[in-house]
Structure formats: C-alpha cells, structure tokens
Amino acid sequence: MSSSRIITQDFDYIKAVSLGEALESLAKDGARVFAGGTDLLNKIKTARDNPKLLVDITGIEELKGFSFSEGCLLIGAAVRLSFLEDEKVITERYPALHEAIKSLGSVQIRNMATLAGNLCNASPIADTAPPLMVYDAEVEISRLHNTRIEKRIISLKDFFTGPGQTVLQKGEMVTGVRVPEPMASSGAAFGKIARVTMDLAKVNCAVWLKREEAVVAEARIAVGGAAPVPVRVEKVEKALAGMRPSSKRISQAAALVGENLSPISDVRSTAKYRTDTASVLIRDTFFPAWKRSGGEEITDE
Amino acid sequence: MEKRDYHYLGKDFPRKDGFARVTGKEVYPSDVALNGMFFGKILRSPHPHAKIKSIDTSEAEKMGAVCITYRDVPDKYFNVRLVSVPRSTYMDWQILSNKVRQVGEPFAAVAAETEELAQRAAESVKVEWEILPSYLNTEDAMNATENLIHDHVYLEDEKIEIKNNIACMRELTEGDVTAGFKEADVIVENEFVTPRVYHCQLEPRSSVCKPEPDGGVTVWPSTQALHNTRILIGELFDIPLNKVNVVRVTGGGHFGSGIHTNRVILINVALALKAGTPVKIIPDREGDIYEHCRYPVRYTLKVGAKKDGTLVAGEMKALVDIGSHHIQAFAFLGVLVGWWHSLYRCKNLKYKGIAVYTNKAPSCAMQGYGAPQVTFGVETTMSMLAEKLGMDYLEFRLKNYVGLGETFWGQGPTVRSTIRSDGVEELITRGAELIGWNNRQPPEKKTGRYRRGIGMARGFHTSGTGAPVPGEVKDYTTAMVKINEDGSVDVLTSLMDQGGGTLDAAAKLVAEELGVPFDKVGISPADTRSTGYDVCTHATRGVYCGGGAVLEVARKAKEVLLEYASRILEAPVHALKTRPDLEREQGEVYVDGMEEKSITIAEVAQTAMNNDWGTAIFAKSHRMIACPPAFTTFFVEVEVDTETGRVTIERVVAGSDAGVVINPSLARGQIHGGFYRGAGMALLEDTHYDEKTGRLTNLGLLTDYKMLGPEDLPDEEHFQTFFANTYEPTGPMGAKGIGEAALNPVPAAVASAIQNATGIWFTKLPILPEDIVKALRQKKEGIATFEPEKDKNHTIEREFLKIRSF
Ligand SMILES: Cc1cc2nc3c(=O)[nH]c(=O)nc-3n(C[C@H](O)[C@H](O)[C@H](O)COP(=O)(O)OP(=O)(O)OC[C@H]3O[C@@H](n4cnc5c(N)ncnc54)[C@H](O)[C@@H]3O)c2cc1C
Question: ipTM of this predicted complex?
Fold first, then answer.
C-alpha cells in the first residue's frame, strides 16, 4: 500500500558536489541518479522503484555544462529543460529538439527535468528521444575505475534496450549528451499526438532530411510509442531516400511505417490507432523538415 | 413584480472571498490545523469483492497508532445522502464493514502523530482475505444469483432482499405508447452510452474532527451539506445534535461529490473519538478516485414524430451501473425520466430504469445529475428526427420544447411546477445569429482532411427542488439577517458556496433589499450550532432557493428596522423607503416624497439600542414553491482532423436564461466552467476498470485521468456568452439558477458539431479520436451512426427481459 502523499520507503540521499563523488556513490547497491526527479519520484511514490540511495547530481558544476563548439552541441546531465527550451543555438540549429522540449510536460516540470533524465528513464514515449536519434546524438557515459573516471561514448540509437531499460551498467551514469551540428541543406521537425496538449504522447516522431536540390538525399526518422523503445523506421527512411517529394509519394513511404512497429494497446490508445497515426504523423512532420532543409514547397502534382 | 433598476444586481464587484482565495489565505479543510492533531490514513481494499477473514493491527498499535476496523464502529446501516425523504432512501452503507465491495473501498483506518507514521502504521496492518467472485459490468452482475454484492439493504425499517444485484427500479407510463408509435410517420431509435467521469475536484475530500470534552465533536469537513452531515454523525455515533458542530469551510471543489457525506468524514469522526484527540484526513488522489464518479448510463431511446414535427411517442430504457453502493440511485432513476419529460412535449411516454450494483466506485451526482446523460440522447434524437423530416433543428425544437405555462419536473416525477419565465426562443434565435447558423453547410458538402462542423443543443437545469407540493426531496434554507449598530449587516446561513459566488449573490440581495452599500453586508462564518437547516447546495439551488430564503429573511429584518425608524421619523412604516447613500457609505431610511426627512440605518440601529427597543434582526426557514428551469443553449464549432480523429473546439456561443443575472462575471465563469467539463465528458473523460484485477486502468493516477487544459479550449474571443432578458416571478428579484445548466447540453452540442463535420452521429461518449478514425473508415463502407460496440449477448433488451420476473 503506497501513497502519493507520503513516501515510506527508507533511502539515503546525498547531494554530490563532484562527479567523482557521484560515481563513487552510484557504485553502491540500490543507488539511483536523482536529476530532476520528475520521473523518479513518481516511481517511488507508486512503489515501482525501491532505491536505497538517491544521488542528487544537480549540484555538480561539471554536469551543468552547455556549449556549442567545433560542430558539436554538448549538454551536461544536470542542465534543466527550461534552460534549454529557449536557448538560441537549439531553436535555430536543432528545431526538432526545441519542439520536443517545448511539448514536454509543463513549465513546472521543465523547471526541474533534465534531458539526460528523459533519456535514462527510457520510456518508449520520451519526447526528446526521437529528435536526438535523428540528429545522431551520442550519450557520454561515465564510471569510476579504481579512482579514475572512465568515459565511453555510445550512439543514442544503441542506448535503449527495453521499456525503462538502457545499456547503463551498475555504477555508470550519463554525464552528457552530444549532438553533432546538422549538415548544410538538412532540416528536421518533431511531431506528437497526445490526448490533450499537456500530455504524454500516444505516438511521437522526428523526421530529419538531407536535401540535394529537389530530392531527399537521406532521411532519418524515429518514432516513439509504437515499439518497446523509440525506433528508427528504416523502411520509411529507405523509401524516402532519393525521392523527389510529392504529397502522394510521402504518404506512400510513410505508410510503410507499420512494418517497423510493434505497438500495444493501453490506457492511452490502441495499437491500431498508433500504427495508423504514426504514418500520418511522419507525413505531417515531413513538410516542416523539408522546408527547414531549404526545400521548395511541395505540390500535389 | 418585474425588473427594476438595481444598485448591485447585474453589476460586478470583487467577490468577498476573492482576496483570500488569490493570496492563498483561504482556509480549506486540508488547511485546518489544531493542537495535538493526529493524521489519519484510510486502508483501502486491493480486491474488488472480498471478506476479511482476519485483520491484525497489532504492529500499527505498537508504533503508537490508533486503529479502527469494522469492530470499532457503530454497526448501523445508513445512506450517506440525506437529501431525499427517508421513504425513498435505500440504506446499504456501514462506516466500515468486514466485507469490501470494490477496489479502494475503506476497510480500516489508523491515526498517528505524523502523517508519515500513520502511513507506516497503515502499511503494517495485516489482512487475510476471502476472495469472492466480482462483477465488473452490469451483465455479470445481473447474471449472479449468489455471492451478491449486497444480500439485503434497508428502506426505512424494511429489510429488502437483493436479487441479481439489482439495486432498484423505476417505471413511468403516460398515455398509450403503442398507439402513439402507430401514429408516427418517422421513428428514431438508438442506444446511448455515457461515461463514468471522475469529479476530479481539486481537493481530495478531506476532513478534520475534534472530539470535545462534553462528548461531542466539532468537524471541519469537505462537504456541500453541513446539516445533513451533522444529522448523520449524530445518528450514527449517538451524539445529541447540540453537541455535533459541523463548521463551514470553503470547499476545494465538489462538482456534486459532496452532496452526500463522504465516508472519509465518518471514518474521521470514528478515529478521533477513539484517539481522543483531533484527527485530520487528507486522502491521496488514488484513494479519492475510488470514492465517487458520475453515474454512467446506457439507454435506448425511441421517439416517433408525425410529418408536421409533432412528437407522438417515446420510450426509454435505462441501465445505470451504480458501483458498490447506493448513493441516490432511486432518485437518479427518477430524474432520468424527469429531464426527458421536461425537454420536449410528448403525450405518450414509457420509461423503465434499472440501477445495478457492480464492484466499482459508487456513482453519485455530478454537475447536471443525469441531465447531461439524458440531454445527449434526447438532443441527438431530436436532431435526427428533424433531419428525417427535412426540418431545421431550431424550428423543430421551437415547436416541441416544454416552455411557458407548461409543467417542469425539477427533480423527477414528484417535484413539479409551472414554468413562468422562458427565454428559450431568445436563446435559440440569438445564438443562431451569432454562430452563423444559416450559413451552416451539410456534412456532404465537406471535403478534405480538416472538416469544420457547427452543432447545437439546448437544455436546462432546475433551479432547486422546491415545488408547490413537497415531493421526494427536501428543500429549504434557513437564514438570519442582523442589522448592526453601525448600519452594517451580518448574514448568517448554512448555505454553502461551491465557488460560484452563491454567498456573494446572497449578500447582494440583502444589500439591495435593505438599501445598504454592498461592502457593508458581511457573510458570517457558519456552523451547524449557530444556523438552521439548509438541505445543501445542489440542484442549482444556491441563488434561487438559498438566495430566496436570505432575501425573505432580509425583508423581515427590514420590517423591524422600518418600525424603529417610523418611531424616529414619525412617519408610518408604509411611507418609509431605504437606499444606499454612497457618500456617507451608509444605508438610509427616508420618507417617500419628503426626502429631506431621512436618517441613516446606523442611527436607527443605535437609537433602537440606546432606547432598549432591540436589534433589527430576523431568522427564519424558507422554502421556494417552484423549481423554474434555467435554460441554456450551446452552439459549437469544431474542426475534425479526419486522419487522426483529433477534434479542436474552434468556437462556442453559449446563451443562458438565468432570469435576472446577479453576478455577471461569475455567471459567465459558470458557463465557461460548465462548457469545460461538458466538453471533457464529450471528448475525453472516463474511467475504466481492469476486469481481472478490478482496478482502475489509470491506477488512480492523474497521469492517465486526462482533462482538457486551457490550451485545449477556445480563448475568450472565440467563446461568446449572452443572457436572455427574462424575469423569474418566483425568484429572488427575478433570478433563477445557472451552474448545472451550463454543462447539461454541452456533450450533445459537441456531438452535433462532430456530426456536422463528419456526417456521423456518435451515440457513445466520450468520442475519442480512435472512435472517429474507426467510424470514418466504416462510413466509407456506408454506416453513418457510430454505435457503442455491442457484445451480442449484452444488449439492454436482453437485460430487461431477464428481469421481467420482478
Ligand atoms: C506531469 C508530468 C508531465 C510529464 N510530461 C512529459 C512529456 O510530455 N514528455 C516526456 O517525455 N516526459 C514527460 N514527463 C516525464 C519526465 O518529466 C521526463 O522524462 C524528464 O525529462 C525526466 O528528467 P528528470 O531529470 O526529472 O529525471 P529523474 O526523474 O531525475 O530521473 C529519471 C530516471 O533516469 C535516471 N537518471 C536521471 N539522470 C540520469 C543520468 N544522468 N545518468 C543515469 N541515470 C539517470 C534516474 O535514476 C531515474 O531512473 C512528465 C512528467 C510529469 C511528472
């Protein structure tokens, strides 16, 4: 019998001041990273998690980094979404990420939540996952080896292993997210279908396009909410590559999405609806992405 | 009597409690804090239907907690709702029982020094359960012959055996339906389904109770019904009522869930009495969500009309899934037919309603009390009939609606009065103009992915449950008005304000009547020891009945005042008038026609005091002898995305006939609020149970109980409201009600707009995007009514056949 008013589980809490301290604590049994807590506290309140130690990382200076240099955007694990949401670099260069962040929760939630937290929570409907996947983001993972901090970098598309599961091992944490600068003549956009405006997605998606003249040279499309993890939908990507877009051809390509999905029916929607609307959503998101890549207006021909 | 110029009525003033509310200083039940106060926690059943084999609270007691189980509470049956008279109030409740009838049903409670300790203590209680078969839908419930949810219930002293989990039934026949249908040129018949909406009031139903040294209790509850709560507590705990004090605390939202005395309050009293110290309970959301919900209704409605649009016959069969307990199902079955009867004139009617127990949260009143459910089907049917007859919706409605001089059923068959004010035509005509009804295109003309549609529906709610002859429902209010020695006024009444400004309206009526400045009229804090009975604020009765009583008392207090004044001014009482003197910030009494002969009310009151004449004061109970309908009409424009099924509300035109409008801004606020919950009911809000576990599929969490947000509703510019120019002759200074009327036609209006956009009539609420996409697919195959999914074995007809034998 749990209660959303009172947490009766016993756990320790530390507010780490350095990455080393945080990693040392994370090596302990039952330790969890505590970033914004907007997912973690809900899990504890509803007894879906039972941590022994919360390691608060929001006071660690080196995790508050935010930079854009040498063709790479770097976002530290302690950076709050409200800081990112109107950051010029993101609105201008990574509009799909900007749109995803804006659509996530409310002002209050974004004032607490972190980008790394959204990824590490590994929900199939994490809103920032699809844009980061199509921007080819990488995740920086750190751990302590003896007393030395070791880092490894993995591609976000290999990060999720199942609902609520990632490649993170005991003692590891994500210290930052790296996003390469989008190439010239590329464009991306984010789309989401939910029950109401402020809501978790039934399905979400991001479309990234590289344009050559009037043709799609390459497409990257990620869909959330329609498989155990956010997925790249290769069937659609392949069908779009080399295409001179028209409404009809985009629809035909988007309709292939079902072959890459395995949605379920739950309290938010049905499997059938998710598959059907995923293709609509991809099509709708294609247009702004194409426009942002510098493409001419698409006609019905 | 007719409309006149008012000083305060129809004008906006900052509301009296506004400052406290917006600065966070208002005290709600969960803010009440007392010395030595313990915190209480309620233990709730994890099973839908089970018996307690054993319960062990020893761990909790070791931790210092006070525990109660069914052994520690009075073993009495009762009903939590005391609005109806005893002969129509079924009793199946116990404060705690050794049997649980739904997931989330309270079976024990603990209190401890801190909320945390209380929670830990609650978690330490061990229970052995005997699991019983559970019934999560009406079909399973009605098929059951043993392990019933209730074996018997009580009606006054009579013990009633329950069969097939049927809680109660109600029938009504007028005229000859068979003959009526023979006359019909067209007949429309559909099955309608409405959702199990959760009230989702901001504050979970909280309560604080202090045991008093004299053996009594003081209670600060979340309730709409102070005196009924007092009476129930007195009766159950054998405490004389002069020792039961229930204090009025501002509610953090009710929507009907506080008409009955929530069990939290009774558990709170039991805990505090056992603990011997004050106890406070604030339920968590996942507990509150199992306590109450709107009545879901599944019904067939068949209506026949002649070529000229005259309605000739109608038949309704309704099945109501009431959940684990009877809150007011018998009354509810009565209003279902009552609202239908009062919407459109039809001389041949047949109705049968059945209320069935299931192992789910008990359903109860929620804004509209059955009217949104019934109006949805009736309005949809009227539009379908009009279409079949080639008549305009508006023309068809104007021809058939029940209006001026006809009989209105304000609360089922036993509460009736004659309609004396009727703004329906004005609402329809003006609303049509504002929305551009004449330019409305039929669905066939609409193409493309995004389709706009304009729809409409009308309805009403009663203003209270008064009537010339008393019926099944109690209805009166008691008030006291006292003119202070400085000319200010105290109004004392147990009337509750649900947030809509009822008490402000009462103060305005008093200011208007006495002729004192509005800010000189104060609403006194109230509790049940210092006030007389008021049935409760429900049935849109606050302004009409409550305000009516306060006004009546103010008139009597004024008579006393004028009598004193006549001694001073040496003029007969009938020559005296009052008016506010805004410069002196005083009310004054003057001689009609000789206005230089005047005196302030303060001077009158002081002279009366100094001469030992007494205080100008009066107290009295007052019952309104009518239940006038407060009419509303909604025109709604939506846009439907035919590919995702998403519905966007683009524009609303809402007209209300509230009689003389007392608080214009607050009345508009009521319309916006009503629309908001009505649209939520149309498009979104519902609760479902997992048939295996008996739990809510949203697990009681708001993450998955979605409601529309401001971003999902049209802005002010696209939401027009207007009021009909009417005067209710029986009302306080011409006023009627508004609150529930502001919701009742909304689901029907939204469904009508969706039909105009898509060509599909949806007969099940909520209309989800998933349904729209599916229906549009089916329509390509030629089906234009999207019916609730039917289990072949599970039709209303079959279920009605089963109970022929009763
Ligand atoms: C009302 C509400 C609305 C919401 N709406 C949305 C929405 O629209 N879209 C959406 O996608 N989400 C939504 N969320 C979920 C949540 O806000 C986001 O997922 C958020 O980004 C989580 O970040 P956080 O910093 O709060 O994570 P936390 O709750 O602190 O952590 C989440 C999980 O990740 C782990 N973790 C966090 N940081 C790290 C790290 N650096 N390394 C390793 N593990 C880590 C934690 O241990 C925990 O298991 C909503 C939540 C609420 C309460």
Answer: 0.96
